[in-house]
């Protein structure tokens, strides 16, 4: 805790009192902003701020070329704050400082707005909202309502686990015993009681008809022997008004994918995929 006697000595100086008054009215101020408000030179202001910092009444933070000052949460300062604030009435400069502070804060906000004004329309295709698509995906998964989801061809269950954080229940289906074993262990380790792995084929998933709200096929459909059957199966397990979400590759010519990734189909054309969906009974295809 700062010394009260020493603090009283420090605030007896009018400039330091003005500084403390200013900082008591805002979160923090840069030295440049304080200069603008008080209309004093930098070295004079810095020397007063340094004394207040040494006494434990203010703290500083460096950001790039700027140093920002703020009041500390010191107990002695808390006791002295009513005196500091009351003294504003006796300081002829206090009213001016209050207005100048408003101007400085306004300028700071204008600068931030100007920065984005300049950027509008320039983010372009390379821009990534939230700075990372992974971040955006996590954000969106947090908005999943309390629904029942079937993750068909779930693999290790990365998506299943993200869904299980909010969903009522997630049923992860895969036809690889090892994936089911690994995914089940992982779900258990992470404490997911609403995530259940089932061994099965996505063309005939071991899930009762009309029981799930969302069927997800993420990078799974191109592995199915009969993708049309898989889409029809997804339709069958959905409740009335349920939805299917398919994430897959656009039709491509990379033949090696069959060997390299055990892909059965080299992606799908959009019309082809639409036909599977409509033939299965889906409407409002996007
Ligand atoms: C590329 S991984 C996709 C994993 C996960 N869905 C994702 O998006 O990261 C494909 C998964 O589908 C599974 N799979 C392939 N054919 C399947 C089938 N006929 N029935 C069920 N699962 C199948 C594979 O075992 C593998 O785990």
Helix- and strand-based class? alpha/beta
Q: List unreliable stretches of 5+ residues.
A: none
- Quote the beta fraction: 15-25%
Q: So how many helices?
A: 12
- Separation of the first and last Cα atoms: 63 Å
The helix fraction, in percent, is 40-55%
What average pLDDT do the residues reach? Answer: 94
Structure summary, number of beta strands: 8
Shape: elongated
- Compressed to H and E, one letter per element, the order equals HHEHHEEHHHEHEHEEHEHH
Structure, explained:
- The chain has 286 residues and is an alpha/beta fold.
- The protein has helices at 4-11, 14-24, 31-38, 42-54, 75-86, 94-119, 133-141, 158-164, 177-189, 227-237, 256-261, 270-280; strands at residues 29-30, 58-63, 66-71, 148-152, 169-174, 195-199, 212-218, 238-247.
- The protein has a 5-stranded parallel β-sheet with strand order 6-5-4-7-8. Strands 1-3-2 form a 3-stranded antiparallel β-sheet.
- Strand 2 and strand 3 form a beta hairpin.
- It is elongated.
- The N and C termini lie far apart (63 Å).
- The structure holds S-adenosylmethionine (SAM).
